Every structure is written in structure tokens, then in C-alpha cells.
Amino acid sequence: MTTGPGRVSLGPPTVDTGLAAPATTTELFDTHAHLHFPEFGDDLDAVLARAREAGVRRMLTIGTDLPSSHAAVALAGREPDVWAAVGVHPHDAAGADEAALAELERLAADPRVIAIGETGLDFFRNLSPRDAQERAFRSQLELARRTRKPVIVHCRDAHEETLGILAAARVGEIGGVMHCFSGDVAIARRCLELGLLISLAGPVTYPNPRALPEVARIVPADRLVIETDCPFLPPQPFRGKRNEPAYMAITAARIAELRGEPLEGLAARLSDNARALFGIP
Ligand SMILES: [Zn+2]
Ligand SMILES: [Zn+2]
Asked: How many angstroms is it from 32 CA to the middle of ligand 2?
């Protein structure tokens, strides 16, 4: 395949070989993947093999409703470098009744579950009513506090409301990540003030990345993590295709370039940040 005109410094462009060279000594942690989704049903072993070859040492697979949270826990139980988060996505918040939340709490007791989420607000698609989204979000923040696990926050076109709920829940005491950060520098600073980590995904590599390059530069070194959100949001050379953890090397290289620091040191530090938040070795 060919690359876009703006891509000059990330190594060979081919799908097959472009990721191996910079990645072998780079240690990456994909803090937000959906590896248990049906998109990976046919070739998950190959996807995981490519991830490991590309330096992705740890992956967190994220539940979005009860069935997918069960699937995430099952996958994490099979793969030593995959952990699970359990939660109900704002799209599915209408189904987050008391029984569902009780089941989530049972699942959260599994030793492979290291976070609650993804949860939050999505006023872009509004697939669940806003009041149901807010209720499910608050309940999962309480669950995160009770289970002493950090929270994975999803926020789209709802920054004011999301930050308000996070502040009221004193998320800094719980710990958490603003995943696939999509706001501007001012919102990034507010997330940092609340005590959240900021996670950047493939969109930082896009030709029109909005405020994301500036965000990548200003987040303190100990507050940044990285993710794929696969199968969604592949980095620029793979747009239009299914995303997978191996492609995260491209996003990491772009962030290193933006911050003006070597990839290996940055990647190791981002992994350290994630391991510290999630409490895993
Ligand atoms: Zn999300
Ligand atoms: Zn996600």
C-alpha cells in the first residue's frame, strides 16, 4: 500500500514489514483495545502474534456491555499479556440496570480485571438517552471506587458534562484515563487537574489532528498513555482498515516525534504510567 503525502519519518510504509524495525526494542502497552470483538474472531492469534512482534507487551481489552465484558474477562484469562476492563459503554447505558451493575461487580472481582469501563458520555451519537448515560456513568464511578480499580472514561461531544460528573465523583481518588482524548488543550489541562491520565490514539497521526499534537506536547511525561481503540481508529497509513495493536507503534512514533524525544524512552515511560495506574507488573 502507499502512504499519504504527509508521512515522512515513520519508517517503511508497507503493511507487512513496516512495523518490525522500530518496535523490537520498544515496549508498548495498548491501554484500550477491543480484542474480544467479532472483528478479531477469525484471526486473533495472528493479531496477538503481530502485536508481540511489534513490541506490544501488554494489552487491555475493554468491555462495552455485559456480554462483551464477559468475553473480555475470558480472553484475559487465556492470554498472559492481556488484561480486562468491565463496563457498560454510554451507547449501551439504557441497559445498565441494577442487575447489570451487580453482574459487573461480580465480574470485576476476577483477578484479571484491572479497570472499570469503558463508561462515560457520548452526546455525538446519543444511542442511549442522556439521563441514562449519566446514571450509568455515575454508577460505574461508584463501582470503581468500591472495587478500588481505575476507570476508563469515554467522552464524545460531552466534555462539560463528563468533567462535571468526574469532579463530583472525585475521580482523582479513584484514578482513571480519559481514553481516546479528543478535546483541546484547555480540556486536557482540566482532565489533568482532576487527576486523570490522558490517552492518545490513532487520530494524533491524521492530517487534520486538530489540537491533538499540542496536547501530545503539553501532557506531563508521567500522565500520558497510549492506545489503539482497535478495531476502530487505525493510524493514518491504515485508515479504512481494521485497526490492531501492532499498528500502535506508528502512533507511538508520532507522539515521540511531536514531543521531540526518542521513541524507546517514551514508550517505556508510557508503559510505566499504565502499569502504575492499573497496578500490574
Ligand atoms: Zn470509547
Ligand atoms: Zn473503546
From this structure: 6
